[in-house]
Design goal:
The complex is a heterodimer. By secondary structure, chain A is mostly helical. Chain A contains 22 helices and no strands. Chain B has one domain (1-40, 57-65). The longest helix of chain B is centred in the C-terminal third of the chain and has 23 residues, at 34-56. Classes of the chains: A mainly alpha, B mainly alpha.
Chain lengths: 488, 65
């Protein structure tokens, strides 16, 4: 037993307790379990949306990115901001349509808009394929945090199992209410801890922010600006654009829009969330502070920068407090993903093969699926080995493929047909898969100008998706026109 | 006042096109490298822009209970 463990254990217990208490006095129908009865006000919606942004990726990946790569990490601050701008215009119509039609999942939205169960199945499959890496990411982060912050007393494997059991248990009982309640504890702690670390560490080691950046510029010239090649300006701009479009396509983020009780709640959040994002700035400060203090971490280990520096700087009990915060940053998003994945399987896959199933059966099945999805994620976590950012980027490219057909469906007169939407999504997702599996990028085409070589390859998948969508939609409309004329 | 919505384009220009013109480490602004200071300034301005759009948007009054 060391000084850090009691704090980490307390965080796990707190999450469990809040998660259970959250269901009190509510009859946990599917409506309550998945979308909180569509009755959440500004604060809960804010916390749910923010809860999915301040994840272990922010905590470990954000600081690790700044530590290992420097300026390219700034992209994280940009894409969120732009996504919030989009959200002001894009989310209220989605919310209204979901409320009018009693939708539970993102796939439901496509089913209704395009009047096609099959499209719903396709979207649900893409969603699940993207969410599993996201959940793996949270579990992996949880394991790292508990192992490092607990000074090795608890192995990462054991931590992952304990975390998975806790989150699956409270999600089964309380659903999204549990996520909302635990996110109150999580956001309070992450705000305090990250701001403290981001201010204290630069002062402690360098005497101030300016002195820290001057020292970094001295030791590693060009580290705080974008490099001329590789993760250059062209990489930066294309990645910011792509991830800003994909941001709200994450099925669990999309579903948390449904919990809002009015559209104004969503619009208010578009003002506050950019400011709240600035917490990331302090995460970057921690990474930059670590870069000269705990040098030598490479590859996947850059994600350890924050904790290595914390262990070097603080007493074990305080490392435990930081670890406790880290545990909560894994559990809250993990719980949202579990709810969403289970809802998708029960509501969009099971219902597609068994259309006579009623809401009660679907609700019961969704809850039973929670431990199963958690188990699958634990399996991949213990087997896989990629670094946190790489995993997340693949999931991001997958969900971004839903953007074109979603945006078209919001227009007054949708030019995309159901076949076009399906073909576009399939073409885009296949491109992502080929690119990820073969490791292809523009750098393998030396005849391209270097600016083009640096572009995010996801742009290609989105372009393929868009072109296929338009062509197939046009073809279907042309084919339908003479038939209709003949019928008349 | 629907035209005020077009203000929302500005953050996109500032954060996607803007970096091409401000990709430099110095001068440090409030201790931040110039590029990072530019981004932080625009995050703050974006929040302000969204507040202006919100205030001018009649939809937010219709929704009030």
């Amino acid at each position: 037993m060391n000084g850090a463990l009691p704090f980490i254990a307390a965080a796990a217990l707190l999450a469990l307790t809040l998660g259970f208490v959250a269901s009190r006095g509510k009859d946990m129908s599917l409506e309550q379990w998945t979308v909180g009865g569509r009755g959440f006000g500004a604060i809960f919606v804010f916390l749910l949306l923010a809860g999915e942004i301040y994840t272990t990726f922010t905590f470990l990946g954000g600081s690790g990115f700044a530590y290992g790569k420097g300026a390219p990490a700034y992209y994280i601050l940009c894409y969120g901001t732009l996504a919030y701008v989009l959200s002001y215009f894009m989310l209220p119509p989605i919310w209204r349509y979901a409320k009018e039609n009693g939708l539970y999942s993102q796939a439901d939205f496509f089913v209704r808009k395009y009047d096609s169960q099959t499209l719903g199945v396709i979207v649900a499959l893409v969603d699940i394929a993207a969410m599993i890496p996201y959940l793996v990411l949270q579990f992996k982060g949880l394991g790292i945090i508990v192992e490092v912050a607990g000074y090795g007393a608890i192995s990462s494997t054991l931590a992952i199992w304990i975390g998975a059991v806790i989150v699956a248990a409270y999600v089964m009982v309380s659903g999204v209410h549990g996520s909302a309640w635990t996110s109150v504890a999580k956001d309070t702690m992450i705000l305090a801890i990250v701001v403290f670390l981001g201010i204290y560490l630069p002062y402690h080691y360098y005497g101030g922010l300016g002195a820290m950046f001057a020292a970094i510029d001295e030791a590693k010239p060009g580290f705080t600006v974008l490099p001329p090649h590789g993760q250059s300006l062209w990489w930066f701009s294309s990645t910011v654009l792509l991830t800003a479009l994909g941001f709200y396509m994450w099925p669990h983020t999309f579903a948390s829009i449904y919990t809002a009780k009015s559209a104004t709640v969503i619009r208010k959040n578009a003002i506050v969330l950019p400011l709240y994002q600035l917490i990331l700035l302090f995460v970057f400060f921690v990474g930059f502070a670590a870069t000269l203090q705990v040098p030598g971490l490479t590859g996947p280990n850059i994600d350890l920068a924050l904790f290595k520096l914390s262990v070097k700087t603080f007493d074990p009990w305080f490392v435990g407090v930081i670890g406790a915060t880290g545990v909560l940053t894994a559990l809250v998003p993990g719980s949202m993903i579990l709810i969403t994945a289970a809802t998708l399987i029960a509501n969009n896959l099971y219902r597609a093969v068994n259309p006579s199933a009623d809401d009660r059966q679907v609700s019961r099945l969704a809850k039973l699926l929670v431990p199963l999805v958690a188990l699958v994620a634990v399996f991949f976590t213990l087997k896989g080995g990629e670094t946190i950012v790489a995993l997340l980027l693949m999931g991001y490219s997958l969900v971004t493929q839903l953007f074109p057909s979603l945006v078209f469906s919001l227009a007054h007169r949708n030019i995309a047909t159901r076949e076009g939407a399906a073909a576009g999504i399939i073409a885009g997702v296949s491109t992502v898969a080929v690119v990820s599996l073969t490791g292809a990028n523009f750098h393998t085409l030396p005849w391209l100008p270097s600016q083009v070589q640096d572009l995010n390859i996801g742009i290609v998948a989105l372009a393929v998706n868009f072109v296929v969508l338009i062509l197939v939609s046009l073809a279907m409309r042309l084919a339908a026109t003479p038939a209709r004329a003949a019928a008349e | 006042m629907r035209s005020i919505r077009w203000l929302a384009v500005v953050p996109f220009l500032a954060l996607i096109v803007g970096p091409f013109f401000v990709n430099r480490a110095t001068p440090l602004i409030l201790g931040l490298p110039f590029l990072l200071a530019w981004i932080v300034a625009w995050v703050l301005l974006t929040s302000f822009i969204m507040a202006v759009i919100y205030a001018a948007d009649p939809a937010n009054r219709e929704d009030e209970p």
